[in-house]
Structure formats: C-alpha cells, structure tokens
Amino acid sequence: MNPLRSMILAAAGNDTVRRLVATAPGTRAVVDRFVAGETVADAVTAVGRLVDDGLFATLDHLGEHTVDEAQAEHAVRTYLGLLDRLQEEGLSSRVEVSVKLSAVGLKLDEKLALDNAFRICAAAGQCGTTVTLDMEEHETTDATLRLLGELRHTWPWVGAVLQSYLRRTEDDVAALAGPDSRVRLCKGAYAAPAAVAYRRGHDVDLSYLWCANRLLAGEGYPMFATHDPRLIRILGERVRWYGRKQGSYEYQMLYGVRPAEQRRLASEGETVRVYVPFGEQWFGYLMRRLAERPANLGFFLRALASRS
Ligand SMILES: Cc1cc2nc3c(=O)[nH]c(=O)nc-3n(C[C@H](O)[C@H](O)[C@H](O)COP(=O)(O)OP(=O)(O)OC[C@H]3O[C@@H](n4cnc5c(N)ncnc54)[C@H](O)[C@@H]3O)c2cc1C
C-alpha cells in the first residue's frame, strides 16, 4: 500500500488528529465537498437534486464503530425517519440506503446488529426501496456476509459490497453471483495487511476485473463502484461482451467525486447511483477519501491554509 495512504488511514484513528482536523478553519469547505450536510433534510435536498439530474442515489448516515446500544438505536431511528421522508418526497424509487453494520451495533453484539438491520430493511421494503450493507474492515467481512445471508432470506434484494483488494473476494464473488443478488464491487478503502489484501494497485485492478466478469456472467445485478476511468472503459466493453442491457447493472460513484463523469454516463442511458453520506460523524469517511487520492489531500491542505 502507498505509504502516504497508510499514514492517513493510521491518522484516522488518532484522537489528536481528529481534534486538529475538526477545529481547523478550512475543514468545513472540504467536508462540504464530500458530505451532503448533517441532517435528514440536508440529505433529502441533496438526493432530490441528483434525481432531478437523472441520477440515482444511496444515502449513508455517517457513523461507525458504535460503542453503545443507545447510539445504535439513534442510527436506526435516523434511517427510519429518512426512509419515511424519501417516500413522502416520492424519491424512494430512485434512492436507497447504505448501512454500516458497525453503526447499528456489530461491534457490540451480532444479534443486535441483525435485529437493527432487519428493522431498516423492513422499513425500506415498505417504502419500495432497497438497502446495501457497506463493507468495512477485513476483520468484519465474515460477520457482514453472515448477516447479509440472514437478511436475504426475508429480503433477497439486500445488497452486498465486495472489495477487490481482499484476496478472498474472488471466492466470495462466486457465492454471490446468483439470481436476485445485488453486489457493489469496489476496490476497498480500509487498511489491510498483505496476508489478506493485494498491495499493488495493479493487482487490485486485476482482481476487480476478474470479479466484474464473474458478476456480469452471473444472474445478479452488479453495481460497479469506481471512479477509475480505465476500469470504467473496460467495464463498458465487458458489459457489451456479456450482452448485458442497460438497467441490468449500474455504475456507482461518491458524492463530490467526478460529478461530470456521473452525468456523462447517465446521459448515455446508464444507471448511475451516487453514494451520498450525511451526518455529523464525517471524520472517518473524510480521511478515507483523503487517503485514496493525493490530489484530495492537496485540496484539503490548500483549504486549511487559505482559511487560517
Ligand atoms: C459508491 C461507492 C461505494 C463504496 N462503498 C465502499 C464500501 O462499502 N467499502 C469500502 O471499503 N469502500 C467503498 N468504496 C470506496 C472504494 O473502495 C474506493 O476506495 C474508492 O472508490 C476509490 O477507488 P476507485 O475505484 O475510485 O479508484 P482509485 O484507485 O482511487 O482511483 C483510480 C483513478 O480514478 C480517478 N479518480 C479517483 N478519484 C478521483 C477524484 N476525486 N477526482 C477525479 N478522478 C478521480 C483517477 O483517475 C484515479 O487515478 C465505495 C466507493 C464508491 C464509489
């Protein structure tokens, strides 16, 4: 892994860095680029604009590594309120939600996380939309896939995320390429040791394409989450090679990242879903975005310097 990336991801766990970043004068401008706001109302406004532009969205209430039941309950209630609002605004056919199991209690108790995720899925089902379970650190992959399997007994549309940087993903993808499955394929955003993850970008990309081929050859609905122009070009070729029709797969990108490319793909008739985070706990999310791309770090440092 790029040493700068490792350094930023390590800093993400440091309380002093967290305090420094949170109170730096230019931080707000950077957060605003990647995060849709703090409240449900902010989130609904942001996705309404995306839908007006012909895009789809998945909303993520920021928060992870919940340390007590009350915090997990707060996360669940926020999702339930959000789903109600999406339905009221007529947005639920184009906007779904993304859930981190650690935000609804995975680190406390697997059963609690399952019950909480079940409540969110039930509400989503009633609103006519779907849920995708984000994938987090590699230590949680087994538990996340286990809970996904449980939820899919009742809600076959619950989406999974697979990370191509993990060596195990080539096996996981085979198990998830069946009928009804919805799989978001991404490269992976967390720090992971060489024993479990590919270290070279080239290997991560090869794994991504191997998995994409498996998903396209399968019977499910693949969701290609990447901003990588080279991968997007190759995916376009693979989609045609497998005879996939538009609407039988989708592209996904993050809020604030390559917005022109999101609109270009949509204008060609592709389904493009934007991952829109909102909420107060933006620190971990922002640090992963900075780690991904040195240019983001430059933008961040310039913003800090210009306002201080
Ligand atoms: C919708 C969505 C959901 C995700 N969910 C998860 C998840 O559940 N778990 C998880 O671990 N990770 C998740 N990720 C993050 C993902 O794993 C990657 O860390 C992230 O997408 C960066 O990888 P990349 O494929 O875009 O390519 P990168 O290797 O980061 O970038 C490749 C190329 O893309 C272009 N590019 C990238 N960023 C920019 C930019 N800001 N501006 C212009 N060009 C750019 C550049 O040409 C760059 O060289 C998600 C990503 C998306 C898009």
Describe the overall structure:
Helix 1 runs antiparallel to helix 12 (283-292) and helix 12 crosses helix 13 (294-307). With 308 residues, this protein is of the alpha/beta class. The protein is 52% helix and 13% strand. The model has no long low-confidence stretch (mean pLDDT 92). The chain has an eight-stranded parallel beta sheet with strand order 3-2-1-8-7-6-5-4. The protein has 13 helices and eight strands. It has a single domain (36-281), classed as TIM Barrel. The chain is globular and about 50 Å long.
Pattern of helices and strands:
HHHHEHEHEHEHEHEHEHEHH
Tally of separate helices: 13
Distance from N terminus to C terminus (CA atoms, Å) equals: 32 Å
Radius of gyration: 18 Å
Instruction: Please give the domain count.
Output: 1
- Say which molecules are bound, naming each kind only once: flavin-adenine dinucleotide
Shape: globular
Based on the coordinates given, report the CATH architecture: Alpha-Beta Barrel
CATH class: Alpha Beta
| CATH fold type | TIM Barrel
Look at the helices and sheets and give the structural class.
alpha/beta
Strands ordered across the widest β-sheet? 3-2-1-8-7-6-5-4
Largest sheet: 8 strands, parallel
How large is the share of residues in beta strands? Answer: 5-15%
Q: Report helical residue fraction.
A: 40-55%
Beta strands, count: 8
The averaged pLDDT comes out at: 92
